[in-house]
Specification:
This protein is of the alpha+beta class and about 180 residues long. It is built from three helices and seven strands; from the N terminus they run ααβββββαββ. It starts with a helix and ends in a 7-residue tail after the last strand.
Length: about 180
């Protein structure tokens, strides 16, 4: 009995000694202070606009703003998902318009896609205070009435000087394929 008891204490003692030694090694080998860690994290985010900093996206009134980069070329969204788009920062006016895209095959020019008809979305499909007149265009697709297919979204934004900029993108809404038993 005494042998089993001393074996249990020895195992416990070795376990705790190992934990203490590992903790001591970790604390003494780490040269970063809490301040160093926070400074390193903060340095990843610019404090103010720097046109040479690739992490910063310029607003509509900033140097380096590019009209063609207001939107990506294409957005693929599920028919049960949310379409979330953001216009450039600091515009004085935003105008989002959504069109059904029609595709025509022309023997001379190939496939041509162009906007066909304007889509008017119900107010209840817009989320988080967004609308066709705000910086954010957030649409919950199941409440919008949008069917799977191709659409074109156009964004027009005006800077403080009164200059209008526009960009467009394809929005492809796909239906989810379910494998229900």
């Amino acid at each position: 009995m005494k042998n089993k008891l001393s074996s249990k204490y020895l195992t416990n003692w070795i376990f705790w000694l190992t934990i203490i030694c590992c903790s001591f090694l970790c604390l003494t080998t780490c040269s970063n202070t809490t301040y160093d860690i926070i400074s390193s994290y903060d340095s990843k985010f610019p404090a103010k606009y720097d046109p040479n900093d690739e992490r910063f996206e310029p607003g509509i009134n900033d140097i380096g703003f590019e009209e063609s980069k207001m939107l990506d070329d294409e957005y693929f969204k599920s028919s049960v998902g949310t379409l979330q788009l953001r216009g450039p920062k600091d515009a004085s006016v935003y105008e989002w318009t959504l069109y059904i895209q029609k595709t025509v095959v022309d023997p001379e020019y190939g496939t041509i896609a162009y906007p066909k008809e304007l889509v008017t979305l119900p107010a209840e499909c817009f989320q988080n205070g967004s609308s066709p007149r705000t910086e954010y265009y957030i649409v919950y697709i199941p409440f919008s009435g949008l069917k799977p297919g191709s659409y074109v979204i156009n964004l027009r934004a005006r800077n403080k000087g009164g200059t209008w900029y526009s960009d467009k993108a394809a929005v492809i809404i796909y239906d989810i394929i379910r494998n229900d038993p």
